[in-house]
Amino acid sequence: MDDLVLLHAFPLDARMWDVPGALTPSLRGHGEPDLDTVAAQVLGVLDERKLDSVVLGGCSMGGYVAMALLRHAPERVKGLVFVDTKHTADTPEAAANRHAMADRVEREGVGEWLADAMLPNLLGPDASDTARASVRTMILDQRAEDVAWWQRAMAKRPDSTDVLESLNVPSLVLVGEHDKLTPPDVAAKLAVTLMHSTSERIEDAGHLPPVEQPDEFRFRLERWRQQVGL
């Protein structure tokens, strides 16, 4: 899978993926918050690895970064994997909530309060203790400046409908059965926007199927790649 690139969710890092052989960069923000900055970082990684064309996947925020990359270099992507993400911009209320969290993180730092606030929305009701401990650890390991930057960058991201409708590559849309942040009906709308999409629901998972159901996630991914010849 040396042509598979997976971009992580907020506020986690590359450890959320358990996919041998995949390229899984940890995203870092700098300068003015804008997901185009992170997309440029990913393109830089592809250039370093001499990867002209990849299967690009992203979970939640990682999906937003993938869409930003598609705005600049769609020719670098031969297949897409969107996991618990959406193609629409934030509502004013959602953007305001992101800015409020960014402000608090800058005041108080990353702490248990952030993990306690995020975990109920990130994991399904039947998530294992191992998954909960893993996600909590990843959250607590993040730098406050990155968490604030990501939130502000996501708050200003544009609607990506126009970008996705123009694509002519195979796409896989996966969503956790119990996802509260981007539930199955949101995933269905994303799938309809894509020209050549396969949409599947992963049972007993919330917003992070690759963490909650890693074996099932890998199985769905590998099956789809075989089906579409990637």
UniProtKB/TrEMBL annotation:
It comes from the Bacteria. InterPro entries: AB_hydrolase_1 (IPR000073), AB_hydrolase_fold (IPR029058). Residues 4-217 form the AB hydrolase-1 domain. SUPFAM superfamilies: alpha/beta-Hydrolases. GO terms for molecular function: catalytic activity. Gene3D superfamilies: alpha/beta hydrolase. This is Pimeloyl-ACP methyl ester carboxylesterase.
